[in-house]
Amino acid sequence: MDTVSIILVLFLKTVQVVFGGIHEPEKRSLLNLYTSTNGPDWSIPRDLIGPISTWYGVRVENNTLMTIKLFRNNLSRKLPNSIVELSNLRVQNLALNSIQGNISPSISKLRKLIVIALGKNQLSGSIPKNLGGIGRLVIMDLLYNKLSAMFPQGMRKLSHLKLLQFSYNELYDHLPVKLGDVKSLEQIDLAHNRFNGPVAESIGSPSNLKSMILDENDVSGDFPERVIFLPKLKISQLKNNDFVIPHLHEITTRKPKLLKTDFTNQEPSNKGKDYKNGHGP
After folding, report:
1. What is the pLDDT of residues 101-151, one digit of tens each?
2. Which residues of 69-108 are buried (b: 16+ CB within 10 A; e: fewer)?
3. Which of 38, 111, 127, 231 is the most buried (most CB within 10 A)?
4. Is residue 69 over pLDDT 60?
5. Pairing verdict, β 58-61 and 146-147
6. Who contacts 137 (Cβ-Cβ below 8 Å, separation ≥6)?
7. Are 184 and 162 within 8 A, CB to CB?
8. What pTM value is reported for the model?
């Protein structure tokens, strides 16, 4: 085979692999996402003929799909299993839609993910136990869904996690002690679930913690001083639980620099994140 023929063969193979700016498996996965979540009814329509890289909410770098931001875009029905083929994906923001069904354990194959934002959907079932396999995660948002299960202990492996939002679900059992192993955590929001029992002292290990929101659970006992006196803690929302109030009052008055602390039995004021300007990087 002469040089010209070799170049032509290589070119044709490249065309088969890369189509519309991304590799064929990624293109197929994104089109499956469009079909599975009722793409024709998305708020912002897609040009299925043009390059994938021109889609709203999609960012492509070096023929690789890096970001999907389709929040508040009227996605419905279920996520396809083929979404795990987006192996280089960094940001998956599908918040504020009407996505149903379970979170597939295969999501752990997206090992380069930095952001998972699935808040304010209609997801149900349990949180996959193997989410700890996504070791680069910085933001995990699953608030305002219908998730009902015990907290996955495997999340202790998420050594880069800063924001954890699981509020307004039906998670139960004791608070996850192993969260204390995630030293990078800055914000924990577990409000409006069914957690019970005491708060373990070890949950106050993350020295970078700035906010802990546990409103509307059934957590009880003496709240750990160690948490209140974390050097960066500014917000502690603990109301409508069964903590020992005199103890909480005493320890919080010894830290006047708390910007906001509430452990009364008033109506909850925390209503979750606002996604109108997007969520995540």
Report:
1. 999 999 999 999 999 999 999 999 999 888 888 999 999 999 999 999 888
2. bbbbbebbeebbebbbbbbbbbbbbbbbbebbeebbeebb
3. 127
4. yes
5. unpaired
6. 113, 114, 115, 116, 131, 158, 160, 161
7. yes
8. 0.84
